[in-house]
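Quick one from the shared queue. A colleague (R.T.) flagged LysR family transcriptional regulator as missing a structural entry in our internal table.

Convert sequence to C-alpha cells.
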Amino acid sequence: MSNVHRKRSLPPLAALPAFEAAARHQSFSRAADELNLTHGAISRAVAQIEERLGVKLFVRRNRRVWLTAAGERLLKATTGALDGLDQAIEDIHRHDKSSPILTVSCEPSLAMRWLMPRLGDFREANPDLNIDLRLAGGPVDLLADGCDVAIRRADYGISEHYITTRLWPEYAGPVCDPECWETILSSDLSNARWLHTRTRPDAWDDWKRRSGSTATPASEQYFDHFFFALQAAVNRLGTAIGPLPLVADDLVSGRLIAPHGMAPTGFDYVLITLDPPKRDPRVALFFDWLMAKATDMEHAISPA
C-alpha cells in the first residue's frame, strides 16, 4: 500500500539540534555553550521530543546524563539527517555557478580605501556579474555567512577546510601629508603625533622593529579603526602607519607621502574560497581582476 500520503510522526524538528548536541556531549551544559542557549532551553527541547515520542532519551543522575537505547537510536538518525542537510546546503552553495551575484566578504578598511573605488571598473568590464560586498574582518564562515569568497589579511589561523590563494604581500611605513612633513616634522618622526588604531595596536612597534628606528612620538592619538587613522593622516592630524594597498591611491595622488618608504610586514592578503578559484567561473573572473588591479598598484608604487 502506498505511503505517499502517510502523515509523518516526527518530533519537533527545531528541538533536534539541541538533542543532538546534548547527546554528543552527554551534557546539557556543554550543549548549551555550543549552541549559545541556556541549560533550560536544552532541557525543554529534549523534554519536547521525549513527550512526543513517549520514551526517555536520557538517564539523568547527579547532574550527569546518559543516553538510553532509544536515545542512541535517535542520535544516530539525527546525526545522519543533520549531516545530510549540511552537505546538501554546502553542495548547493558550491555549485551555484550560474548566479549573477558573487557575494564577497572583505575587511572594512581594505574595502573602503581600495576595493570599492575600483568596483565600478569591474562592473563596466563585467556587467553580467554583480558584486554583493559584505564588510567584515577576521575569521569567516563562508557557508553560514552566505558568502562565496572572502578577502583577508592572513594574520590569523585560517581553517584548513578553506582554500587560501595569495593575492599580494603587504608593505607598510609611516605616511603623512607632504606639507606636514616639510613644515612641521622637519623630516624627524620624533616631532610627529603618531596615529594608532585599536584594531592593529602594534603597527608602530612592528615598523620600528623592522626598520631599526629609535624615534619616539611627540604625542599620540588612538582611533577605533585603521580607516579613521589613515583619514586623520590625510587631514594633517598626524602620521600613521600606512599599509599598502590601503594608502595606495593616496600615495599616487600625492595626498600622502611615505618618507621612509615601504617595507614588507610579513603578511599577505589572501582570497579565501571553498574550492580552487578556477573551479567557479565567477570566482575565477573576480580573482583574475583582483590580480590585475594588484599588478597596476605595484606598477604605480614601488615599495622601498
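The mean pLDDT is 88.
The chain has three domains: 13-94, 101-165+267-299, 171-266.
Added to the table.
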